[in-house]
UniProtKB/TrEMBL annotation:
It is a multi-pass membrane protein. It comes from Streptomyces sedi. The lineage of its organism: Bacteria, Bacillati, Actinomycetota, Actinomycetes, Kitasatosporales. The gene is mscL. InterPro entries: Mechanosensitive_channel_CS, MS_channel, MSC/AndL, MscL_channel. GO terms for cellular component: plasma membrane. The keyword Transport applies. Homopentamer. Its main location: membrane. The keyword Ion transport applies. This is Large-conductance mechanosensitive channel.
Amino acid sequence: MAGVRNTLDGFREFLMRGNVVDLAVAVVVGAAFTNIVNSVVEGVINPLVGAFGTQDLDAYESCLRGDCAAGEGIPIRWGSVISASLTFLITAAVVYFLMILPMTRYLERRKARQPVEPEGPTDVELLAQIRDELVALRAGSTTDGGAVAVGAQRPAPGPEAGDGPEGQGSDGAR
């Protein structure tokens, strides 16, 4: 029973997150908006386009084969395609001009009002700083007994006595 309760609590938290609620509101508003656009296209735009031909834009069609008037042909309904295209274009224009453009301007103004934080160093600058620190540590002096300062590397061993001819190892070649 506790597993079901945890699942339901998780589902409730999921539904109450801001983006899910915003999405639900957007779907409802979008559905209502679609009805408005369809009414404008069917009641205003289609009759204006239809003024150049038939009264009903959906009645524009061509017959691919046979006689469409007799019901034997294959009709291509150009009017329906034009009507759907007009609906899409009007919907896209309204969404852009009434939703996206104002929101973009609002976000730009909001961003301009926020104080500009200084940008941190770039990756190249950080790598150059690390390199300089490593060079400084390597060039640093060692204490008596060969101990190296904290974080520093031991210097590379130099030629020592008994290391072969001229300090290059026992075989004389490197």
